[in-house]
Design brief:
The chain has 314 residues and is of the alpha/beta class. It is built from nine helices and 20 strands.
Length: 314
């Protein structure tokens, strides 16, 4: 049985759950690498990463390098004498770092690799209408998300799943998968599988262009896109209401299959319901946020906002 000394690398809440699971189950975490503190809010106060906040609460050794190739950081990392490194939602590591530990460096990725390599695998699995996804642990190599697979676990994607709910499901299943992977390494029982060369589905970084709703798309595609971006970073559109054009975020929705004669994007509003016409149906909006306003349910919006008879989503 190997005596493991683990360095953990990660930044957001997703990574905290995995780190917490390791600490609470008495795995020996000798150091934590996370992002540098960043100014946030109106006062531009320095904001600690979620991983740093948790690491401080556990008195764990913390390193926050700006440059992972910096010789001073590499020396600090060597001093920790880690023989295993675990990476969850961090950034690409230089070879000098991922090659350092005796038992390697492995990553947790929130998809069933080789599908959905890239920055936003949870979002794209829903946007593309998948019915299953999962988590994968793999040893890091010199490319992104291409290393040899250690373990995988499937997770069902429900028809009503949002990126928020799926994120949490994968976070908790991922924590258990990381622990199982560490146990295999500890016992010296790891058998890896080489990833296929073929990559059909990718998970590129999200930006305003690929988060904008195309109301000419199909009912299913629009519905999947909105839920695959809810609650973050959120699908958006423009409401054209007479001469006003209002940038708008769309959150919770449902789809309604129904033949109609409206043009795609036409807003159909009553006192109690807000929906948008698309090919072969409607997107019924339950939560919405107009630019400069708070997020609200559709009924609250309809109480104080008048849509013209020609109002539409662009």
């Amino acid at each position: 049985m190997r005596d493991l000394r683990i360095v953990f690398m990660g930044t957001p809440d997703f990574a905290v759950t995995i780190l917490k699971h390791l600490v609470e189950n008495n795995y020996k975490v000798v150091g934590v690498i996370t992002a540098t503190d960043k100014p946030a809010g109106r006062g531009r106060k320095l904001n600690k990463s979620a991983v740093k906040k948790y690491a401080l609460s556990q008195d764990l050794k913390i390193l926050q390098p700006k440059n992972l190739k910096n010789p001073d950081f590499v020396k600090e990392l060597e001093v920790l004498k880690a023989n295993l490194q675990i990476v969850v939602a961090f950034r690409m590591l230089p070879k000098v770092v991922w090659q350092m530990p005796k038992y390697g460096t492995f990553n947790l990725h929130a998809s069933l690799l080789p599908e959905y390599r890239g920055a936003a695998p949870i979002h794209w699995s829903i946007i593309n209408g998948e019915t299953k996804t999962g988590t994968t642990t793999f040893f890091i190599d010199d490319k992104i998300d291409t290393g040899e697979i250690i373990l995988q676990e499937e997770t069902e994607i429900l028809d009503t799943e949002t990126v928020g709910s799926l994120h949490d499901k994968l976070m908790y299943s991922g924590a258990k998968l990381v622990a199982k992977t560490v146990d295999l390494i500890k016992e010296g029982n790891v058998i890896t599988t080489k990833q296929p060369e073929l990559e059909e589905k990718s998970a590129p970084k999200l930006n305003p262009d690929n988060c904008k709703i195309d109301w000419l798309d199909s009912l299913d595609n629009i519905y999947n896109k909105i839920r695959g971006l809810n609650p973050f970073p959120t699908a958006w559109t423009i409401i054209k209401n007479d001469d006003d054009e209002i940038s708008t975020k769309i959150y919770a929705v449902e789809k309604q299959l129904e033949e109609h004669s409206y043009k795609a994007g036409k807003i159909v509003a009553t006192k109690k319901e807000l929906k948008v016409a698309v090919a072969k149906g409607f997107i019924i909006i339950h939560e919405i946020k107009l630019s400069g306003k708070k997020k609200m349910d559709a009924k609250s919006l309809l109480n104080g906002f008048a849509f013209s008879s020609e109002a539409k989503m662009l």
